[in-house]
């Protein structure tokens, strides 16, 4: 099996260590003897959505968010089809705003119903939440200057910080969330494998270090 | 009223000095009494401000020390109180009752976020902006926000001193008078980008991807856009031969000793040199002054201990650029080594536990045949160890330690020859101490 990943705007939407999620997915898939091909894609490239099983996109400055949107707009139809056909997107930080109706007054991709607006004060800090998808808590971090008015399909128990629609996973939680949350990473990658091959025999992952870091976080800080 | 404020705060400052206490209080008190007190001061002709994400402390210290050696009366905020209260304290302690500053020059290290209020009132003629890099994201948000803050404080009559190797700083385009410094191609320059998470990859004028003849680090180097005319500017002060191994740099034929062979030492000196030469200090004299400064970089240390070589490299947590410089330095030294990564706490300022910046650091560069082991230390040692796993280190190369005692035992092994400690400043002293005790 080969999994094709597009790292969208790797050189623009890369504010907070987002490539950690790519490292996590690559490691987990390869540990299952699955081949991984990652294409770094940005403003100068054409995107062939048919090719990919997973699209990953991270946070950016407001300027870079607008530049990315400008480039991505022409693929509106392709992205819609991509999502509707149950393919995967992992969008972290303010990149989720791209998929709403509007970013401030700028028209966005209009895949989902929400609008995002700039805030006067930044939202910064740790965010411990839960999701129906796994039993363990999620460790997250936020650092943003905008908000989304209302999300209908919430990914997390805390509202309006995450969206899950089919296999679109989007969240304001930034950075390497898959590395910090080994159970969530496992869940996510298992789903990704299952979509490619329902019967694929998934072996046990070695996430012992990640789990120690996860447990230590709760011991030290909570 | 202003006079009374000054008297009260001068008095407070004297008392505090006797008690050996803080440099912020008199300024904070003055602000309480009169929030516009900053407009009261009559500044000397020569007002120099140094701001930026990193290096502003070292750079302003070099500038102030050289001016003093050149027999000028100078004040500067040497203890790093670089926000509004700290700057006010400095001025209060050194002004007459009518607010006149009685020195030849004022040198101020200014926190990025306070540039607007401080520049508006004190009107520095010269502004050095060392860099804008990823630094304490919970506090600063991101680089563009820092840029906007500083840019709003800049007026077109100022003379800017900027690192011409950094395309990001070209966004400061208001001023006619800009002095650029830079480093020429040298044996550490490289052709293909080594860092994934950099702040600028596209031309700030036409958004075309920037190209490079060579890089020094991250987005710094000899850049150009092949769609428009944007390119690295003409460099006024170019370090033309840079010999980091022998610890000197050459600027305009003047050899200057540097105390530690990492890139940012050279950049800090270049920034100071450019400013000082711009204000007409003779370059020969200036080079001597800088070379003879006792410690033109006190941050890093090289220790020779029982036939071991130990580099203690000082970094700032949540500032991936400082770590990237250390990582690049360690990876350029092609010798078998043990690396230590760690910190006591992420930040003294706040309780956030963000780990994302660890993934902005290119630890992958250390994963080569020269690195034998990576030792992970401190409260977040498992997060560090996890990062090392994703940098490609094998399980048996990653050592997780919970005490300095155990670290000492490992390092004392006679087979350990070269040690590179890439640590936050809160571990610099504890590590140095390991090699002092007996």
Describe this structure in words.
The complex is a heterodimer of chains A (222) and B (438). Helices cover 30% and strands 27% of the residues of chain A. Chain A has a six-stranded mixed beta sheet. Chain A has a four-stranded mixed beta sheet with strand order 6-5-7-8, with no helix packed on it. With 222 residues, chain A is of the alpha/beta class. Chain A is built from six helices and ten strands. In chain A, helix 1 crosses helix 5 (182-196). The radius of gyration of chain A is 17 Å and the shape is globular. The longest helix of chain A has 15 residues, at 182-196. Chain A has helices at residues 19-31, 62-72, 76-84, 177-180, 182-196, 208-221, and strands spanning 2-8, 35-41, 54-57, 88-92, 102-103, 106-107, 115-129, 138-148, 162-165, 168-171. Chain A starts with a strand and ends with a helix. Chain A has one domain (2-221): Class I glutamine amidotransferase (GATase) domain (Rossmann fold). By secondary structure, chain B is of the alpha/beta class. Chain B has helices spanning 2-19, 25-33, 56-69, 84-93, 115-122, 137-140, 143-153, 263-278, 283-291, 320-332, 381-390, 404-412, 428-434; strands at 46-51, 74-76, 105-109, 126-129, 159-163, 177-183, 211-217, 220-224, 237-243, 248-251, 254-257, 301-305, 308-315, 337-343, 371-378, 398-400, 418-424. The N and C termini of chain B lie far apart (59 Å). The model of chain B has no long low-confidence stretch (mean pLDDT 92). The A-B interface holds A 10-12, 14-20, 23-24, 27, 42-44, 61-63, 67, 122, 124-126, 141, 143, 145, 174-176, 179-180, 209-210, 212-213, 216-217, 220-221 and B 134, 137-138, 141-145, 196-198, 201-202, 207-209, 351-360, 379-380, 382-383, 385-386, 389-390, 398.
